[in-house]
Amino acid sequence: MYTFSLPPCIKGYDTFAAFAATEQLEKNDLIITNEFIFDPFVKPCNVPCKALFQERYGAGEPNDQMIDAIRADIPADTKRIIAIGGGTVIDIAKVLTFTGDWTTEEIFMGRVIPQKARRLTVIPTTCGTGSEVTNVTICELKNLSTKKGLALDTMYADEAVLIPEMVRTLPYRFFATSSIDALIHAVESYLSPKAIAHSEAFSEKAIEKIIAGYRYIARNGGESWKDKAEDFLTASNFAGIAFGYAGCAAVHALSYPLGGKYHIPHGEANQLMFAEVMRAYRVKHPAGKLTQLETLFGRELGVKPEEALDRLYELMDTILPRKPLREYGMTPEEFPQFADSVIEGQQRLLRNNYTVLTREDMIAIYNACC
Ligand SMILES: NC(=O)c1ccc[n+]([C@@H]2O[C@H](COP(=O)([O-])OP(=O)(O)OC[C@H]3O[C@@H](n4cnc5c(N)ncnc54)[C@H](O)[C@@H]3O)[C@@H](O)[C@H]2O)c1
Ligand SMILES: [Fe+2]
């Protein structure tokens, strides 16, 4: 038995101006974005609504204090939030659709079940998270020094609007980290025991588009990614649909202490874990869905299936070179504690593993990345 639904309505526009001219933006809508996105795209459209700029509330990816501070500044009559940004802005906006008496930490720790009181329109400006179509939001909890994901159906956006021109202003580094995140969403959801034919189709299409784009960049140089911006945006949306159904797994779970404690950007932290998690899967469960994945990557990369994953890691390294964990300041003494925090806090993800990874496996994976 399965139910595959896609709650947000997905729309596409060539430009933000076309979106603003067609959709009714109202006085009691609130735009949450960054000033450097607002100025070139939104300001010229003279929209009637107010805007808040996320970067004025703190740097980096979302944390509970940042969300609580933005919340205090939201006009009381706000009926709809329009989030225009990367996963950071989108995930913050999801929490801010709730009204009532709560702190962000209470929501993430499950002590309060909040009620949605505002509509949410999302325009992604990175090509990674797929957050515009998932019911997931991810936040660092300052008191716990880790990131935690929360999945609530009330956090689905009402509309996801894909506008390729919004992505083209991304600096290369964030194109790289976000597109790697999308590729890993597609792989983890493909291998998830919850995958069904529908989610697999979205995973496969996302993989095809991202690998084709990466091969194009390998031939034409880093900035050429902009020629493929629309494909990367579509691929990240497809990967979001796939993992929104089938879930992410150990790569994401093991990366959370890296993001929470060392503030490594989400996609980069995932890439650091990716190859070693896949190697552990291969050792523990070589036959099965993994062989289908190797065939898929072999086809897209033009190599034999048994070489495909190693060639994939090389290609990903040309997009964003990996560094060992020790270069970020991590030491092997921390890894048992990382593994414990993953086992304690990330069961939502570990349930979707291709195969079980023990505490010892996790510590070995961190050591192999160090
Ligand atoms: N909710 C989900 O389903 C989900 C899934 C994966 C990741 N995430 C979360 O999303 C966050 C990461 O999101 P991200 O990878 O999109 O990065 P991000 O939102 O943190 O953005 C990265 C950087 O790029 C800048 N930026 C964004 N769009 C830009 C543009 N068009 N032009 C110029 N600069 C731009 C941002 O200001 C930021 O400095 C993490 O917190 C991660 O945990 C959420
Ligand atoms: Fe992710």
The largest sheet is:
6 strands, parallel
**Based on helices, strands and strand pairing, what is the structural class?**
alpha/beta
| Average residue-wise pLDDT | 96
Spatial gap, N to C terminus: 42 Å
Write structural notes for this entry.
The protein is α/β, with parallel strands linked by helices and 370 residues long. It has 2 domains: 159 residues, Rossmann fold; 197 residues, Dehydroquinate synthase-like, alpha domain. The protein is 51% helix and 12% strand. It is built from 16 helices and 10 strands. Strands 1-10-7-4-2-3 form a 6-stranded parallel sheet, with helices on both faces. Strands 5-6 form a two-stranded antiparallel ribbon. β2, α2 and β3 form a beta-alpha-beta unit. Nicotinamide-adenine-dinucleotide binds next to α4, β8, α6, α7 and α11.
Quick gist of this model?
With 370 residues, the protein is α/β, with parallel strands linked by helices. It has two domains: 9-167, Rossmann fold, CATH 3.40.50.1970; 172-368, Up-down Bundle (Dehydroquinate synthase-like, alpha domain).
Write the layout of secondary structure elements.
Elements: E1 9-12, H1 16-22, E2 29-33, H2 35-42, E3 50-53, H3 64-72, E4 80-85, H4 87-95, E5 98-99, H5 104-108, E6 115-116, E7 119-124, E8 136-141, E9 146-151, E10 159-162, H6 164-167, H7 172-191, H8 197-220, H9 229-246, H10 250-262, H11 266-284, H12 289-301, H13 305-319, H14 335-345, H15 347-350, H16 359-368
Parallel strand pairs: 1-10, 2-3, 2-4, 4-7, 7-10
Antiparallel strand pairs: 5-6, 8-9
Helix pairs in contact: 7-8, 7-9, 7-11, 8-9, 8-12, 8-13, 10-11, 10-14, 11-16, 12-13, 14-16
Fe (ii) ion is lined by residues 129, 181, 185, 252, 266, 270.
